[in-house]
Amino acid sequence: MIQRPDARPTLEDVAARAGVSRATASRVLNGSPRVSPAALEAVTTAVVELGYQPNQAARTLVTRRTGAVAVLFSEPQPKIFNDPHFAGIVKWAATGLAVHDSQMVLVLVHSEEDQLRAQRFLAGGHVDGALLFTPHQDDPLPEAAHKLPLPVVFGGRPWGTLRGLHTVDNDNEGGGELATRHLLDLGCRRVVSITGPSDELAALDRLAGWQRAVGADETQTAHLTESGGFSREGGERAMTELLRRVPDLDGVFAANDLMAAGALTALRAAGKRVPEDVALIGFDDDPSVAPHTDPPLTTVRQEIGTQVQAMIDCLFLLIRGEEPKQRHEVLPVQLVRRRSS
Questions:
Q1: CB 3.0 to 4.6 Å from 18: which of 46, 64, 127, 231, for a disulfide?
Q2: Which residues make Cβ contacts (< 8 Å) with residue 105, sequence separation at least 6?
Q3: What is the rounded CA–CA span in Å between residue 128 and residue 65?
């Protein structure tokens, strides 16, 4: 067969170059296990030599695959790109999906119109599956996505029952307890906590870990905690309020590193030395925050890259019609000691 110089190589061209049937070439390109090693090598070589690129639209009709995965966040755009936690998720998701030769489609949802648009998009057959990072209590997207005939994996622990939803979470409650017991083991007698938003289960779980470690009831919890909203500015405001309310505090568990960094600013402004006067610990071990504060933060490490990769692995099992070994996976966390405690 003589191929025109300006013609785009076809599947038939690949099959002819490889010396196999069109059906065999098609099976190789669609990842079928029902091909011999010799055919796999011959077709792969032919694809490279000819510069063949499959027609994605046609492939989608045959395989019902789009080669794309949606990554959804229910957060405002500035938070996604300015908060290092979310920026890390985006980076790891893009890297992990590329290994599967799948394109990441980033979907940001922050209004009712966004919600409806996202639901239409997921129902429209544009993606093979979705990774959801939608932690807020009143967010309808997890339940809506769960009802769609689409593989979905949730990052964290969703509100409500949603028993059929596959999830990958970090041990937030265990991490909160680990952090607080570390402060108590250092001899701290008055340990307060700067908490995250009350509509996020990760924040509530970390608070529950602190409560369990210090044995605080509801009245004590109200007195010894203040929300910082998972932001640096919020952490500074919360720390200032706790210093006013609990002047003899000597230990602080901040439920993320950004709030801990803000707390450091407030402690310094109040003339408190860290860790000599007040020991401080964060949560996340964010590489852009924890090692670079003064002093560097002791913190609880959650492996965001490991969580995202576990979500991707789970998702592609579901896409292939296989059931993961665990429907709800909880990953361990660990204490990273630096000079703030």
A1: 46
A2: 68, 69, 70, 71, 126, 127
A3: 6
